[in-house]
Amino acid sequence: MKISIEEALEIVEKVTHQGGLSKVQEIVFRQCWEGSSYQEIARNSGYQLGYIRDVGHKLWQSLSKAFGQRITKTNFQRIINQYQLAASCPTDKCQASPASAFSLPTLQQSTVKYKQEWKEIIDVSKFFGRTIELANLEEWIVSDRCRVVSLSGMPGIGKTSLAAVCAEKIQHEFEYLIWHNVRNAQPIKELLAEIIIFLGQQPGIELPQTIDGLLACLMKYLRQHRCLLILDNYESVLQSGGKAGRYRDNYEGYGQLLRQVADERHQSCLLLTTRELPISLNVKAGDNLPVRSLQLSGLSPEPACEILAAKGLIFTNKEARELVERYSGNPLALKIAAASIQSLYKKNVSKFLSQDRIVFGEIWDLLEQQFNRLSNREKQVMLWLTNQDPHLLHINENDLPGLSIRNVLEALQSLQQRSLIKNDSFCFTQPNMILEYIKEVTHYKSESSILKFTSVPSELSQVPTLSKKQG
């Protein structure tokens, strides 16, 4: 049974022999015990965020020294509960020295049980770069105790790999870890039931029949235990052919799950990987909020070149930089290209670059799949952007592809959510791979046919769907 916060403070006072905590230390201790982030503590107490972080850091250092093991913001509740359990141990050894008994490995092994369920997690024994992104995720999830974190980006950019590496690194900060791949769009009731049964460790338990009931049951566990829930390939429950981030029919329950986990107070975290942000998260995310979003871009040249070297390719530094730039630092695209260079060009990067066609085979399929998720308006705007100088681009009614300014702005926003365009001070650019793909599409179809824009909204359905020409 978990002890109360007052009992915890009494234990701290007894173990530290310092007459208890200072006023600010007690504020940090109490609110961390309740699951608040440093941002929330700073906001509630009126102190600066940096000061609260510093007080917290010194507090955990002091407690680590007093208790004889590493104590952090995420594990101090469990450590103090274990101390109380050791203090009440009936053996003479425990009664004589609870602090000593508490630090025994045998006691820790019997009381700390990490339960994990990894479904379809990928092998990340070879992982390149992403040190800054990994540090950000760890800080958000472990230190800031964010309730929802999303990893978004275009296909192949490394979302799943980064999430897997992060989960492996921080797994022991959680009592429960659950990894689910929702690629096959599992109905929300089935997903919730599986998670609840795992958390409850009672396979025969009778579960609620409604989504509301299942969510209420899940939230109870998320409040009682420190859980890390990862949902991979979340875009599978989002619709194609419309604005980004909207749910498929009969999958709105996933949005309800996100809203409750994001809005309600608890001590757990939900981590998503997705090609596009769900609309509800886009609104709730913020730098100082318990919901955070990280949009991945391509790898920097150094780790990207490590991918090429691992494949045994032959290249100069200039050739490697050009290849990385052509594929926008996309790790999966680089691996696919490296395999083609191995088999078709005898590992010679120079010969591959000389043929000036980088989008084909699996890379073409990858981009086509993403492009075909777009609405007709988004496709129109993508093709329009291809013919514009991004540094001279101005949105005005006379220079639009048969669409109103509102339509174009909505399409641009939606394309950003899908990571298909970047906006730097209203200078919109497309990743090099996307530009290459569109050039290939216009090569197969006449440009006048592809770029035939209509001014009447009812005629938008006549814009041809862009797909690879057969034969």
Write structural notes for this entry:
With 471 residues, the chain is α/β, with parallel strands linked by helices. The chain has 23 helices and eight strands. It has four domains: 5-111, no CATH class; 115-295, P-loop containing nucleotide triphosphate hydrolases (Rossmann fold, 3-Layer(aba) Sandwich), CATH 3.40.50; 301-358, no CATH class; 367-462. It has a six-stranded parallel sheet with strand order 1-3-4-5-2-6, with helices on both faces. The protein has a two-stranded antiparallel ribbon with strand order 7-8. Helix 15 crosses helix 16 (317-326).
List keywords for this structure.
8 strands; 23 helices; Rossmann fold; single chain; six-stranded parallel beta sheet; 471 residues; two-stranded antiparallel ribbon; alpha/beta
SS class: alpha/beta
Percentage of residues in strands: 5-15%
Largest sheet: 6 strands, parallel
Write down the CATH topology of the largest domain.
Answer: Rossmann fold
Break the fold down into its secondary structure elements and pairings.
Blueprint: H1 5-16, H2 23-33, H3 38-45, H4 49-67, H5 76-87, H6 92-96, H7 98-102, H8 105-111, E1 115-118, H9 131-143, E2 148-152, H10 159-170, E3 176-181, H11 188-200, H12 211-224, E4 227-232, H13 252-263, E5 269-274, H14 279-284, E6 291-295, H15 301-310, H16 317-326, H17 331-344, H18 349-354, H19 361-371, H20 376-386, H21 405-417, E7 422-424, E8 427-429, H22 432-444, H23 447-450
Parallel strand pairs: 1-3, 2-5, 2-6, 3-4, 4-5
Antiparallel strand pairs: 7-8
